[in-house]
Each structure stands twice: as C-alpha cells, then as structure tokens.
Specification:
By secondary structure, this protein is mainly beta. The chain is built from no helices and 46 strands. The strands form ten sheets. It has a five-stranded antiparallel beta sheet with strand order 1-41-40-2-3, with no helix packed on it. Strands 5, 6, 36, 37 and 38 form a five-stranded antiparallel beta sheet that branches. Strands 7, 8, 9, 10 and 11 form a five-stranded antiparallel beta sheet that branches. A hairpin with a 5-residue loop joins β2 and β3. The chain is elongated. The two termini are about 35 Å apart.
Length: about 500
C-alpha cells in the first residue's frame, strides 16, 4: 500500500453504469446527469469580447434611431443599417463577414434618401434570402429589399414600397418565419400602434397588408426603446411589448397568418403601474418561452426580467418579475435580448447609466428565471458605445454588436462578444468517470458518496476541490463542490443533493 486511496476499492461501492451523450474523453472527468438519464462530460468556455472593427471612415451617426443589424443565414454575412453622416444622413447599409472575432466590410450602400430617414430597422427574410429594411422616409413609411453576395450589397431596383403615406415616430420589424412575412410595427402620428405584414415575392418586390391597430385605444409612448417585438415559433405569433400612457407596460399578440394582421391585447399585472421604462423581448427556443427585459422604474430603475408563456388560445402566463440590483444595471438603455442556444441562456445587453455596455445571462426553468450576477463588460465607459444593434451568430456561437462611439467622433464599429458557456449547474453534477466512454456507449461513473481514484493526479490531501465550468477540478471555490482529496489521486465525492 503506497497511499490512503489503496485502502478503498475503486468507487467504494458507488460505481454506476450510464450511457454517454457525447464522448467522455478519459477517466477522471467530472460528468453531469442529463434530463434523459444519460451523462455528459462537464465542458464549457470562458466569456470573451472581440476587438472593435471600424466600418465607417468617419462619422456613422446623424441623429435618429440606433444602428440595426441582421444576419443573413444563407450567405453567412451581417448587414448593418445606419444613418450615414458622410452622405447627408442617408439611410445606408454595409455587409460584414466574420472570421473569429475580426470583421471584413464591403462598401457602404445608400438605401433611402438623405436628410430625414428618422427611424428604421432591418431584418432577414430566410425564405427569399433577402434583407428587408423598413423606415420612415420624410412623410412616407417605406420598405426596401436587398441581397448580398460576399460583402457586395444590391438594393433591388424597384423594391421601394410606400407602405403608408403618413408619419410614424417609431419603426421596428420582426421576421415571422411561421408565416414568412415581415411584421412592421410602429407608432403613428396619432400615437396609436399600427402594424403591417410585409410579403416579398420571388423578384424581391414587397407588398404590404392593411394596417392593424395593435394598441387599441391606448397610445404608444414615443421612445424607440419602448416598442419591441419577437416571433414565437411555437405558437406562430409575434409578441409586442410597448410603453403606453403613464409609462404603463403593455403586451400584444399579433397573428400574421391572414391577409391582414389580427391580435390580442394582454394584461400583465407586473407592469400595470408606471414603472415600465421600455426594454426588449427574447425567445428561449428550448423552453418555448419569451423573456422580457425592462428598465424598471418600480425597482429603483434597475434592469428586471420576466418569463412569458404564450398558449394556443392566444393567452399568456406570466412568471414572477426578477430584478437585478448590480450598480451597472441601473438605468439600462438600448437593451437587446436574445437567446444563446450554445450557452442555453437568454442574454441581455445594454448601455448603463455610466455609459459602459454590458451583457448578462439569465436561465429559464418553467416560469422561473434565474439571473447570473456576473456582468460582462463589452465596451467600457471611456469609449461610450451608444445606439447599438445586436444579433446572434449561430456559426460562431457569439453575438455581433454594431454601435457608434458617442464621444464627438461618432465612428461606426462592430465587435463580438460571447458569454460563458457550460453544461454544469449547481445541481446536475453526478460524479467522476472511471474510464473513457464513447458517445452512446455505456461506462462506469463513480457517483457522489463514493471515492474516485482513477485518472486523478496532483491533488493536495485534505483540500476541498470544486468542479469548474470548463470541466476542470480545482481548489477554487465554485457552486459545485466535488469533495475532499484523500490523497494525490483520490477524492471523497461528498454527497450533496
């Protein structure tokens, strides 16, 4: 006998056979128990922020709404829409490809007329492989389409459509992949909420439905942060969130399946007082839930989250509102909320009152939402990133943000950011592998309550060891305690429920 672990047989009676989901690469690896009863090796990656790449030679911002960005899933390219101060504030677009965290940009292409393109948005139509730009252009609400080859943009001739000859103070858009239409929603000159379903044909010529008033008798507040929407593919509808009279929060479901949109106003008691400062909505594709993020004046102007479940009868179930109280989440501005399928979390990004830009993870379980207290700094306060647009890139599992520096130079930039990913939670750690296990094969795991003594080395006896999000086992404290080292090669896996 050479060390204390020789007193115990491997596993000490706690070896259990499991089927692996994904390869368990060797012995001595911490594993988690999946919901289907299989096991997976603990794995993950750290958060990261790329360096900014400038996409305009000088200024990108000429007043009006924020930069907007969409992702062309067919050509793997991003299209950024912005007001180009180098060209009399013309609404313009630029294409960008991404390699790692570095962008390559094409030429700037003017879309709308100069001088007064006040508010705008851009989305990608995945059926026709084209982008759709909606904007308020002087006294007309208009729609353009375009295509991309490499980083070369073509704005299709004759694609300009006058949706309405009226003035709209807010313009936002969502692509409804259920009905293959772009839902354009906006605030009209009478302060009511209007939406139009935009269809695009094979020649990229758009057409618009008649208007549908989604706000009923309620006015929509005139702030571009106060009107947002997301497509719910599970129910095939679009959920709109907006700020109404007396800063009260409202929700509306919009159905684009017919010739003209129809909808249902929803009651949400969490925002029935005057605390709704505007925010955004993301959609959790795993849990089939919408997540609303809000500048919450009812909670000292901190960032708040809420889960919303839409059912087949066009009604909603609301989870309990959860508020973040970190200093840099107070007075959040320019919020963007999206789902990261790699990290399996909802990610909200915003510009703080101190002008730094941050991102944060939130996890949904049923109608319960848990906020990760860690904030990822994307742009520090000395650079003053403002008016950003954000989109998720599924190819590189990171987010792309377009923004301008609100520091007197106003150049346009794009950069990437990625939140930390892991399949480890505070409750799913199962034990340590006794050997490598190929995916779909079975193998033994020494589970909690046993003694793992295979594949481990360089441990410090009597020290507590913890499982880290990247799958390492160290003495650095984390939410998941593995146990106490009995020797350099053995850990007593203390049972924890």
């Amino acid at each position: 006998m050479t060390n204390l672990s020789d007193l115990f047989p491997a596993g000490a009676g706690k070896q259990v056979s499991f089927t692996a989901s994904g390869n368990v690469t060797s012995s001595g690896k911490p594993v988690v128990l999946n919901s289907d009863g299989t096991v997976s090796e603990v794995s993950g990656s750290a958060s990261s922020v790329g360096s900014p790449d400038q996409f305009t030679p000088t200024t990108a911002y000429g007043g009006g709404g924020p930069q907007s960005v969409c992702y062309d899933t067919t050509n793997d390219v991003f299209i950024i829409a912005f007001k180009d101060a180098n060209n009399s504030n013309a609404l313009s677009v630029i294409a960008a490809t991404l390699s790692g965290t570095n962008f390559t940009f094409g030429a700037v292409v003017a879309v709308g007329f100069p001088a007064n393109t006040d508010t705008y948005d851009i989305v990608f139509d995945s059926l026709r492989n084209c982008f759709v730009v909606v904007c308020q252009e002087h006294s007309n609400l208009k729609c353009y389409t375009g295509t991309v080859s490499g980083t070369v943009i073509t704005v299709n001739s004759g694609s300009a459509l006058v949706v309405s000859s009226a003035t709209y103070g807010l313009v936002k858009a969502v692509f409804d992949s259920t009905n293959n239409k772009t839902l354009l929603f906006c605030r009209d000159s009478s302060s009511k909420g209007q939406c139009f379903a935009i269809s695009v044909d094979v020649s990229y010529a758009p057409s618009a439905s008649s208007a549908y008033n989604f706000s009923g008798t309620d006015n929509v507040d005139n702030s571009f942060i106060a009107l947002r929407g997301v497509h719910d593919p599970d129910q095939g509808v679009v959920l709109l969130s907006y700020r109404g009279p007396s800063v009260v929060g409202y929700l509306s479901l919009v159905d684009c399946s017919g010739a003209t949109p129809t909808g249902t106003l929803l009651t949400n008691s969490a925002w029935s007082s005057s605390g709704f400062g505007g925010g955004d909505i993301g959609y959790d594709t795993v849990n089939n839930k919408c997540v609303i993020t809000v500048y919450d004046a009812d909670n000292s102007n901190y960032l708040s989250y809420q889960v919303v479940t839409i059912d087949s009868s066009s009604s909603a179930t609301f989870g309990t509102k959860v508020t973040q109280s970190a200093a840099n989440s107070q007075w959040p501005d320019m919020q963007y909320t999206d789902y990261d399928p790699t990290a399996a979390v909802t990610v909200c990004s915003w510009t703080s009152n101190n002008l730094g830009t941050y991102a944060q993870k939130a996890t949904v379980s049923g109608t319960t939402l848990t906020i990760d207290s860690t904030l990822l700094e994307i742009v520090n306060s000395t650079l003053i990133a403002q008016q950003q647009g954000v989109v998720y890139d599924p190819d590189t599992s990171q987010f792309v943000m377009a923004y301008y520096n609100y520091d007197g130079t106003d150049e346009g930039y794009a950069k990437t950011f990625k939140v930390e990913t892991t399949n480890l939670t505070s409750t799913n750690f199962l034990g340590i592998s006794d050997a490598a296990i190929s995916s779909a094969a079975t193998g033994n795991i020494t589970i909690k309550g046993g003694i793992a003594s295979t594949g481990l080395s360089s441990l410090t006896p009597a020290s507590d060891y913890y499982v880290q999000n990247d799958g390492t086992i160290t003495t650095v404290s984390s939410d998941v305690k593995a146990g106490k080292a009995l020797s350099a090669t053995a850990i007593n896996l203390e049972y924890q429920s």
